[in-house]
Amino acid sequence: MTVATAPTFTYRHVPATDAARPPLLLLHGTGGDENDLIPLGQMIAPGAAIVSPRGKVLENGMPRFFRRLAEGVFDHADVVRRANELGDFIAEARERHGLAAPIAVGFSNGANIAAALLLLRPEALAGAVLIRAMVPLADVPKASLSAKPVLMLTGAMDPIIPEANAMQLAAQFEAAGARVEHEVLPAGHNLTQTDIRLARDWLAAQGG
Ligand code: MLT
What we know:
Helices cover 32% and strands 23% of the residues. It is an alpha/beta fold and 208 residues long. The strands form 3 sheets. A 7-stranded mixed sheet has the order 1-3-2-8-9-10-11, with helices on both faces. A two-stranded antiparallel ribbon has the order 4-5. β6 and β7 form a beta hairpin.
């Protein structure tokens, strides 16, 4: 007998009130939880179903989606393991709630795990909005993102993510065939009103 070890996450599910919109997978930043981005999700894609998991890694009590050795220095083996675990969770949640492939909306650490997921398990997501993302993987797999839509929102004054690093991530997605829109905003690491407006307009243009 095989015992299935389901990679369970603590998460929130908000059912759709507008079935035409693709579901959102909300991925919070360091120290956030499954509740954090729900208001953002509802603002940028009103009526969309939401699945919002809590990162399982604790850094001084703060939830994250993978281990890091220092700020901006990642445990790459853990990134790969956790991205795959999240990919399995998405498949499970889709089945449980009858959902189409979601568009990830990730902020900071959540954007980084979404970026890893896109490159490692492209079939898990229909697209992604990556707010303050950086290169998450040491070895970039030969992924085929076949015109998957990706919006990257980078802060020109972000003290954590050099603009060149975000550019490198955009180039990795483009090399894999994604349809990337990359905006560099006059912002730091924190979320701004411009991020919200651009994410909302981009999602509306995707039919989401
Ligand atoms: C990360 O660890 O993913 C990035 O440094 C962003 C952060 O969470 O501060």
